[in-house]
Amino acid sequence: MKYDMKSYYMEYYFESNPDAIHGEWNFDLHDLQLCFGVKEFLVIAPQSASGVLLDAPEASKLLSAVAIALSNCSSLWPAFVPVHDPTRKAYIGIQSMGTVFTRRFEADRIGSQVPVKLMHLEGLYELFVSKFAYSTLDLSVHNFKVQFTMKLTYKTLPWDDDYMKGFNGEKSGEKSIGIHWDDDCSWSEWYSAEDPVKAFELVAILSEKMVESSMEMAELENASPHEAEKWLISPRISPNLLECSKGNWIGFASQLRLLVDALEMSFQAQFLEDFVSVENAGADNLKSMIVPPPSVRDRVLKELFIDGVEFSNFTDDGHKTGRAIKGAPREFLFAQFCLHALWFGNCNIRAISVLWLEFVREVRWCWEESQLLPRMPTKGPIDLYTCLINQKLHMDESVVGDDSSNKQTLSDEIPGIVDRKPGIVDLFNDKSSDVTRRGSAGIVDSMMLLKSHQSMHAPFTQEPPLMTEDMHEERLQAVEAFGDSFSFSGQLERDILTSDMSAFKAANPDAVFEDFIRWHSPGDWEEDEPADCGSSSTGLEKDRWPPRGRLSKRMSEQGNLWRKIWDHTLALPVSEQKPLLDPNREGEKVLHYLETLRPHQLLEQMVCTAFRAAADILTPTSYGELKQMETEIKQLYVTIATALRPLQVNRFSADSDTIEDLKRVTVAFERVEKLMTLGVSLQRKFRRAPRLARDIFSGYYDFSISKMGSLAEQIVEKGFDMKLELRNQERELLSNMFVPPTASQSWRKVLSMGNLLNGHEPIVREIVFSMRDQATGNHYAAHSGCFSHKKEIETYRMYICGTSNDLRVALSVASCD
């Protein structure tokens, strides 16, 4: 509003909690409500770009005008006008309480050089008494009954390394492991996270009591805060934990965001070598990309290909829903490459290309030197739920292992040989064992050969050749092209089938084609119904020789491919057979794939693997009983799998919306990562009081949820402020966090305020003095108006807030004008 040449603004404030009991410390109060004990009020002040307020005479004149205006409209609201410099937080105010009483307000602040007397409760008590006692009295020897209440705020030292070293973990139930707070956390191998809990504030509230002398106030100054009626804890959470603090938080999410940017750039070249060479045309943006020196690259490769790393030591301890993300398990070689790439340089496309080319050269060296790759299984089938690069590395490892195994003698345990038999009996129990039998793994229980009265022997056979996902796809495409899937399947599996038939013939010299079908494909052998079911139902097949039955229709057809293979197959045990896989050819095919991989194909698989591996690293972290955290982790895996699906089904292109979806996933990942660090930090600080960890985490979790709503800006500006009341058994835990200060600590000051907690003085001390009087029977009495009945009113009230270097005093006086 405008008056004359000046503009003014008027603000109205309403009571936030009408049901609050008068005199309680309410943490939701406005500053002026706390200072003067009012409820609703208004503030009027001139609008000034420089922030300069009114001087005292001008402010008094403005306040008088406002008071007259409020009186004319029968308003009982107090009005305040700021005066002097804004840093003084000085106000004057007035309130009409009816037809008789008027309350006047005044507040000011000393910003430095607080008088020594006013640093102590004794001096503050005398300051209050001086406002209503005769000036000629010696206040130190006279008693004046006043109401007194006090709130003390303490703050722990920052949770830095030096402080944690001085922390008595044995007494408090906490233990500091290592140098940094998260040294034993699952992510500490890759980065050191900022402790999100910077400190704790303890608020100790002394209940209201009557004091009568300065000596009594001096005793209260020496009282321990353990005698306070209430203890409340307030965590100080790092502002970097908020989503708006992008760039200030380093973790997996920040590096995954850089990896997504590299994926977006990967379509700009056909070959990875184009990103390495900055002399190529259009490579101006590559020159600004940082590539670590060769020494750093060599160190990374040494960690990846370190000798003595046994795969058997690794377990896939990722989340059960992580397999929906088509990447390599986090302990596998390619997953480790992706995790190192996140921190190699600034994870740009050029640095990734340099590291990948050197990685492939190292893989080729291992192949040429017949060295097994570290961090890869040498046995077992290829997991088709992983990315193609991981499958190729598994194939390379397997063919190297098989090539070494084929050099062993049959008397050794032969890797790559399986026993295909439903039941085995001791070989020496077969009295008809032929001396020409070779490669037998044992007798097949209850099965006899058709043409000779001999037991059937199961042979040692070669494992089926390992196949990667692209090899399966090629076979399926070939089946579709040929149409006759059965005939083509026989042709396609000719080598496997021929090997099995050769081994079976060697183990059973008198066997016929029908015997092989009965062992290899029981579904293609149809048993005849016995004439006497009762007599034969309990007998063994060896007692009913020759076995009765016939081949199925498809196996008995003219020109059956399986029979043709049988007729032309020689009897050779597995030890004399040619391996199904040509190790040299398959190994070179793997290396060719790795060396000719397109940039976007590499980055697509790196993104899938990096997201899965990073999430799997966070999952096993111990964060206590936080149900919200379990829900967030489960939802994170679902979100990642959904966003990565276009990359896993080859539907990704440079102009798709997938990049933006992936960037949104990094935001969700960062949120979970930050909540994880908060949960871990609280769990470690409150091992003996898990309730506090749960309640503080729940409070911050709800705060972060509300911050994402429509009031985000307002909430972010306000920040997270939580007060949690401690139970009696929890006080000792928090008290132990206040480690007694040492003489060498630079923050230690001359203690001057009293009320020490383990040697720590309060950072803020707030006091309320008050005097009440009856509205009848004294000079405040009036026989008319709203105060004509008996009622106690607060005649004097003083709010004091300060430290040894700062003091703010607010006084309100009710009088009968």
TrEMBL record:
Disordered, as annotated region: 523-552
Q: Which residues form the Rab3GAP catalytic subunit conserved domain?
A: 435-595
Q: Where in the cell is it found?
A: Cytoplasm
Sorted alphabetically, the keyword list is:
Cytoplasm, GTPase activation
To which protein family does this belong?
A: Belongs to the Rab3-GAP catalytic subunit family.
Query: Protein name, please?
Result: Rab3 GTPase-activating protein catalytic subunit
